[in-house]
Design brief:
By secondary structure, this protein is mainly alpha-helical. It has a single domain (19-317), classed as Farnesyl Diphosphate Synthase (Orthogonal Bundle), CATH 1.10.600.10. The protein has helices at residues 10-15, 19-39, 50-60, 67-77, 83-104, 121-124, 127-145, 154-168, 173-183, 196-221, 227-253, 256-259, 265-269, 274-278, 280-297, 306-317, and strands at 114-115, 118-119. It has a two-stranded antiparallel sheet. The longest helix is centred in the last third of the chain and has 27 residues, at 227-253. It binds geranylgeranyl diphosphate. Geranylgeranyl diphosphate binds next to helix 5, helix 9, helix 10 and helix 11.
Length: 320
């Protein structure tokens, strides 16, 4: 049964049709919105120190694919949520994602020199400024979610804040990063062999949690909690796993120039990846299975979810 498209206007279906056209549109809207939000001083009392603001802008504006905000905007469109609300939630999520990249690149973590084709934040500024810019972006995200411009319904705002906090925090991305570093043998036990279940759990937390939140955000914004929100969360889980496998494959056969970052780092660092465990062919097969399951998860939405189906293809085939 198509549980969404009945009553949907044809122009709405058209609006969500082409991923290739929609992703750069959302990216441009998110860039403009983030730029405005970072430049405002909405509380009017304290100004952000200029060096900190410069580093936050450097970390968050330009270059990123804005894939997570895209998912927020497109899932929100399924429920006719006003686009500005979805963009605000997407901008908040992108702030969390950008913070995680800044901190992931730090010498204490992955120690990277290049991100999105430019020097990493600690290289362009300094380490202390990079840590604070990450902290600033993380906390700013929750400021953005708390505003009526994100939703006029306070219950929706609280649910967005709680869900993003869970996804980003110790039970989500931060916890996944901890498991990732532990798997490299950082904390004294040396590199360890992990089974598939452990690697999937680790990656589901580190990379998957924010993507699951992104795919769930439209339903949260619409205050919908039924089989449609369950379907979208499943879609998010499937493409989240696919996103990480594709990322691991790109580390092996991707082009540094296209990716805007160094490659071949996972094996050097002894990272726990499914490719390391199962091999490239098995990983590619799993990627194909995840993509077809993601398509199936979207069945209830019919044609209105065309761009989300294309997004699943993009995740599996991306070169950057
Ligand atoms: C430091 C708390 C903390 C967490 C770090 C982001 C992260 C968790 C680790 C980065 C390692 C990594 C490359 C994970 C794979 C998934 C991922 C986050 C890829 C980068 O996301 P894209 O491709 O990047 O969406 P852009 O630049 O397009 O935004």
């Amino acid at each position: 049964m198509n549980i969404v498209t009945s009553g949907v206007q044809p122009d709405q279906a058209a609006r969500t049709r082409s991923f290739a056209a929609r992703l750069p549109e959302v990216a441009a809207e998110i860039d403009a919105l983030l730029s405005r939000l970072l430049d405002e001083n909405p509380r009017g009392e304290t100004a952000t120190p200029p060096r900190l603001l410069d580093a936050m802008r450097y970390a968050s504006l330009g270059q990123g694919k804005r894939f997570r905000p895209f998912l927020v905007v497109e899932t929100a469109a399924l429920f006719d949520v006003p686009r500005q609300n979805a963009l605000m939630a997407g901008a908040a999520l992108e702030c969390v994602h950008c913070y995680s990249l800044v901190h992931d690149d730090l010498p204490a973590m992955d120690d990277d020199e290049l991100r999105r084709g430019r020097p990493t934040v600690h290289r362009r500024f300094d380490e202390a400024t990079a840590i604070l810019a990450g902290d600033g972006l993380l906390t700013f995200a929750f400021d953005v979610l708390s505003r009526p411009e994100t939703s006029t319904d306070p219950a929706v705002r609280v649910k967005l804040i709680a869900s993003l906090a869970l996804a980003a925090g110790p039970q989500g991305m931060v916890g996944g990063q901890m498991l990732d570093l532990a798997a490299e043998g950082r904390f004294g036990q040396g590199e360890q062999a992990f089974d598939e279940a452990h690697i999937r759990r680790l990656q589901g937390m580190k990379t998957g949690a924010l993507i699951r939140f992104a795919a769930s955000a439209g339903a949260i914004l619409a205050a919908v909690d039924d089989e449609r929100s369950v379907a979208l969360r499943r879609y998010g889980a499937l493409i989240g796993e696919a996103f990480q496998i594709a990322d691991d494959l790109l580390d092996i056969d991707g082009e540094a120039a296209l990716l805007g970052k160094a490659v071949h780092k996972d094996a050097e660092a002894g990272k726990a990846t499914l490719i390391g465990l199962l091999g490239v062919e098995a990983a590619r097969k799993r990627l194909a299975l995840l993509t077809s399951e993601a398509h199936a998860a979207l069945e209830p939405f019919g044609a209105a979810a065309a761009s989300l189906r294309e997004a699943a293809e993009f995740v599996a085939n991306r070169r950057r």
